[in-house]
Backbone:
């Protein structure tokens, strides 16, 4: 399947865009970025230098994903979401000179398989969003998010669990949870959730 790159998108010559992926109007994909197959980079979105995205990822309009972020397969990043990359952001050095690339160390956000980040959220690097986790819209993520966790607020805190379908899980008691969509059962141990084997 062919890629779809709009004429007014800015895609670096050495960026790798997987088969079936789309880069929409006014989006920018920087040097050495790698996008897997069937990815969507929405209008005005930004993919930083060397950012890596797996297959079937979606960056919605005006999402800003700064290097060295890593998105595994199936990650959803909502509109106007920001992934930061600097521990101590400053425009200038203590001497008053404009900071350059070698004046600071970039740190990244990592999103594991199937994770979803809601619209206008801010993920403050370095953090890892666990597999299939969901960050509610408008959240500020400052700590790692466990797999299957539903987090919300500023700073984001766990308010529940979600399954692979993205729907909040039903509490069955005794540390067991069930997805009302798929019927999958999950087991909670020490504030972590795992999918129960069939």
Residues:
């Amino acid at each position: 399947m062919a890629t779809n790159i709009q004429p007014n998108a800015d895609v670096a010559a050495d960026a790798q865009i997987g088969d079936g992926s789309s880069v929409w109007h006014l989006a920018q994909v920087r040097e050495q970025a790698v996008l897997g197959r069937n990815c969507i980079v929405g209008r005005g979105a930004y993919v930083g230098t060397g950012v890596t995205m797996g297959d079937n990822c979606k960056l919605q309009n005006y999402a800003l994903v700064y290097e060295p972020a890593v998105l595994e397969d199936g990650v959803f990043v909502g509109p106007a979401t920001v992934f930061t990359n600097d521990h101590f952001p400053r425009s200038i050095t203590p001497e008053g000179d404009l900071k350059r690339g070698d004046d600071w160390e970039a740190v990244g956000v990592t999103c594991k398989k199937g994770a979803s980040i809601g619209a206008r959220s801010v993920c403050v690097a370095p953090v890892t969003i666990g597999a299939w986790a969901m960050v509610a819209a408008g959240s500020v993520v400052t700590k790692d998010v466990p797999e299957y966790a539903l987090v919300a607020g500023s700073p984001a805190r766990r308010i529940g669990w979600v399954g692979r379908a993205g729907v909040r899980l039903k509490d069955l008691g005794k540390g067991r949870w069930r997805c009302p969509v798929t019927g999958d059962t999950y087991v909670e141990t020490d504030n972590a959730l795992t999918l129960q084997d069939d």
Notes: DSSP finds no helices and 26 strands in the chain.
